Amino acid sequence: MKIPINRNILWADTFVRVLVSCGVKYASLSPGSRNTPLTLAFASNKKIKSFVHVDERSSGFFALGLAKATNTPVAIVCTSGTATAELYPAIIEAYQQRVPLIVCTADRPPELRGRGANQTINQNNLYKNHIRWFYDAGLPEMTIESINKLKEETNKAFYKCLFSAKGPVHINFPFKKPFEPKSFTHEIDEDTLRFAESNTKNKLYTLPESESTISRKSWINDISKLISARKRGIIIVGPGNFGKAFINECYGLSLRLNYPVFADGNSQLRFGSHKKDNIISHYDAFLRSDDFAKQIRPDIILQFGRTITSKGLETFLSNCSADRYMINEFGDWFDPSERAKASYALDPFVFCKSINRILDNSGFSSVDKNWLLKIKDAEDKSANLKSKIIDQSVFSSEGRIIEEVLKVAPDGCNIMLSNSMPVRDFDYFASNNNKTITVYNNRGASGIDGIISTALGISAASKNHTILLIGDLAFYYDLNSLLFAQNYKTSLTIVLINNNGGGIFEILPISNYGKIFKEYFITPHKLNFAKLVDAYDAKYFAASSWEQFKNLLTRASKIKGLTVLEVKTNTAVSVKLRRKYWKEVNQSMMHD
What we know:
The chain has 23 helices and 20 strands.
């Protein structure tokens, strides 16, 4: 018996069923005609929660936020043409940060390419410089062999993006009209239909057992010997989604070695109930002291996580001759200073646990405890000066915003940090805190695009409240995303730090270039954000004192939906305070 079907619909349904069987739970969709089969397949599958975005750029960054919060692959669907290009910024960010995305672009059939057909561009491996894997699914063919090939490649896409080459993957889907389910294009037999609709057992594309396991054991043994032979070391934990297991093992390693842990504000180590005796959070300040930096010359540095945020630490590393070893899951190279010895593809948790076991079994005992005490003393001085200069500053200096947010942020909340000054100020001024806070950022490519969309994705995937710290230009750049917030009522508070332009340029040398600087870099806008927020039916507050700021932020955290809390700041005053703080820390180090 032959059964009438629309081949595009059956093809797309089969694809989505395989994704569901792999574990995909979220999809971010944008309306279009050519992607109708994919949109219907995702929308009709009750095991996937689909979100709709008019703007593909917002859709891409929203999916990025979902994937960050869940650490699972999220599907993105768009139509053909320039819609595919709108996804590119989010794909670049996902590539840089190894965030798992499955990008599904609809396409015209091959014979229409290069023929002037409407909404047709060359989508073949469009994102080739910023994806981990690409597959063109070809036009749907209603044979068991072709359907099985689609299933195989879908399984592979999931495995690639989450495990073997973690990051975004791209599948291009050419479709010929018609797209609607009841517009039948073919008749197929029952066996073929049954196979297409069956839940084929997933294949795990595991790598063959090889010398890699032996190599990893060898690397750990080699580094353990280096550590045992060195007296003074530093552990650096850069940005990363580090969990409790790693944090506990890393802290245990610091205790055994008497190594300080320089924890980036985006590393998760500054927050939570774990012990923090050796966790150093104000290193950026005391490392800006050339005198003190010369006094602490480590023999070895172990670096976990991505590229560090701190300028002070980056300068220190550029001038440091210590052997530095980077340890991360894929052996990625996070070293702008070009001074590291090697990068090892090792799981940080496994590495720390293995080294701890080796040190315990060898009876290792660190002998240079003064090394750690000297750095902890610098930490205490820097923290005290921060409390005096930054945390007591008048309203509304930008640096103090960080401490005020941390005071009232609900335990268990998420904090998303925009690029430019918010992420830097957070790294400079966020002290160790016993609250459980998960910190997110888009520091892969460090753009200011899609920041609100990413925060909305994090919020949509999390049961906990999310706070976004963002500058005025980044907020303006992603206004389209507020429409999504209106439609889905996600629990997000945006702290809008408005300095009326590109405040970050005030700390760069270009700020000394008068008229050119003012006209081409600062870009004042004088926008009325209250009216813009009101247009999207979101709650808007403005703070005029620190006490009011805290009260409004506390109130906002209890409101379901989007709240924008605007703080107008003076860039020049904020720059002076940062410089005063660094200067006084420098002086305190000289008198040590």
